[in-house]
Fold this protein.
Amino acid sequence: MKFPREFSLQEIAQLLKVEFVGSPNFPVLGCNEIHVVEEGDIVFVDHPKYYDKALKSKASVVLINKRVDCPEGKGLLISKDPFSDFNKLTQHFKPFKPSNLLISDSAKIGIDCIIQPNVFIGNNVRIGNNCTIHPNVTIYDNIIIGNNVTIHSGTILGADAFYYKKRKSGYDKLLSGGSVIIEDNVDIGALCTIDRGVSGNTIIKKGSKIDNQVQIGHDTVIGNNCLIASQTGIAGCVIVEDNVTIWGQVGTNSGITIGEGAVILGQTGVTKSVKGKRTYFGTPIEESRKKLKEMVEIKRLIKDKK
């Protein structure tokens, strides 16, 4: 998530009401999670396990809950609760704006588009040319949709990330300030949900086709020309490379990569990253030939015991 202008470290510290370490004029351009952080960004960390990763990341500023030596060329924001302070940044720079119109005045829709009844299109949405949006689709604020895109009934683009921190009092939500980008020539079936990124974008790249009742989590990137069948659930921060086929009722762990050209057979649990140009099956996931041989051997052993 980029800020509307360059801010100084001191300005951000004053906004959050925290101490800072580094030059008061140190430039700050945005804030992001660790997996998408860039130079000029703030990243937050609140667990000792991840201190080193955050301090050595591309982030220019680290929002942290411990006094540590400031790495050269970086700044620190010392916070009692980095999680909550990161939320303050999202609330300040990407606040929720209610809408009382089915199609926001600030939305821009290209030529030759068909928008069916009861479609909701939020603030600052951008829709390209020759798109068809079927009834009861919900498109949250700041979503970007390319050309020649079809979205079927009941689909939701841009719902919040499923991201919570457990407290003694319950669960605190990490606010979502990112977006969803749907590139050209994408088809999305009925009753799908594609969540917005926490601070970056969830992206469906050119030519990909998504069946009905598919869930795609926050900050996930679906590559070019992928096929994803019904009732698949893809977790947050997953990378699906180009030309991947995922058959029905597949589920994935978060933070994994599915390699280019891979085929994931139905009802597989993708528990780890897998290489491309191979076919996979089962839970835990294995190459399909190996998994099917294992199943045959198990049946043989059971039969022999009888």
About this structure: The chain has two domains: 2-93, 108-290. The mean pLDDT is 95. The first strand starts at residue 2 and ends at 8. The helical segments are 9-16, 51-55, 82-93, 288-305.
